[in-house]
Design a protein that fits this description.
single chain; alpha/beta; two-stranded antiparallel sheet; 8 helices; 7 strands; binds zinc ion
Length: 198
C-alpha cells in the first residue's frame, strides 16, 4: 500500500537497535514529510560519523584519531588499565567519573558455545601493552554473567605477572548483566570495591 521507497526506508530503520516496526514506520513517514534540507543534514551526519569513527589501535576505543584522546592524555594514570568487553563500555565507565586510568577493549567474552575462544579476543594486544607500558594494575570490568566470570578467571591466570595486581569489579552490579545497565553510582562503587584476583 505504501510507495516502495517508504517501505524500503522502514525496512532499513527497523534494522536499527531499539527500533521496532511501528517506530520504523513512524520515523519513515515523518522523514518523507520533512524539509529535504533537514533530512539531508541527518543523512550527512550519519555518513560523516560512520566515516570518521575508527577504533584506537592501542585500546580499542571509538575515536576519530588513533591513538585516542584517552591513550594520549598524560594526566591519566597509565599504571591502571580497565579491561572492558566492548568499546561502548568505556563510555559507561567514563560516565561514572571515578576512573582516571586507561582502557583496553577485549572485543567480546570467552564463550565456547558461541565459538568465541581466547584467541578471538584482544588478549595478546593486552600482553604487549603489559610488556611496554608502566601498568601496575589491571581492573577487569566485565559483566557478571557466566561468560564474564569465565573470561575474568582466564585473564587473571594468563596475565599473572610478578608485581602486577589484577582486580575485578562486580560488587553491587546487577547479576547477569553488562556495564550498560549499571547506573553511575553503582559503577563507581563497583570500581572502588574491586576485588583482588592476583
Ligand atoms: Zn586508545
Amino acid at each position: 500500500m505504501l510507495p516502495d521507497s517508504i517501505t524500503q526506508l522502514i525496512a532499513a530503520l527497523a534494522r536499527l537497535p531499539g527500533v521496532g516496526p511501528r517506530s520504523a514506520e513512524r520515523i519513515a513517514l515523518h522523514l518523507v514529510q520533512t524539509d529535504p534540507a533537514i533530512v539531508k543534514q541527518l543523512a550527512d551526519a550519519i555518513l560523516i560519523a560512520r566515516e570518521k569513527i575508527q577504533f584506537c589501535t592501542t585500546c580499542g576505543a571509538m575515536t576519530e584519531k588513533s591513538p585516542c584522546p584517552i591513550c594520549e592524555d598524560s594526566r591519566r594514570d597509565a599504571s591502571l588499565v580497565c579491561v572492558v568487553e566492548r568499546a561502548v563500555d568505556i563510555l559507561s565507565v567514563e560516565k561514572s567519573g571515578s576512573f582516571r586510568g586507561k582502557f583496553h577493549v577485549l572485543g567480546g567474552k570467552i564463550s565456547p558455545l558461541d565459538g568465541v575462544e581466547p584467541e578471538d579476543l584482544k588478549i595478546a594486544d593486552l600482553e604487549k601493552r603489559l610488556a611496554g607500558e608502566p601498568i601496575k594494575e589491571i581492573i577487569i570490568a566485565l559483566g557478571t554473567d557466566v561468560e564474564g566470570d569465565a573470561t575474568s578467571s582466564y585473564l587473571a591466570k594468563r596475565l599473572a605477572r610478578p608485581g602486577l595486581k589484577i582486580s575485578r569489579i562486580g560488587f553491587g552490579l546487577p547479576a547477569g548483566s553488562g556495564l550498560e545497565f549499571a547506573d553511575e553510582l553503582t559503577l563507581s562503587r563497583a570500581l572502588e570495591g574491586r576485588r583482588d584476583m592476583s
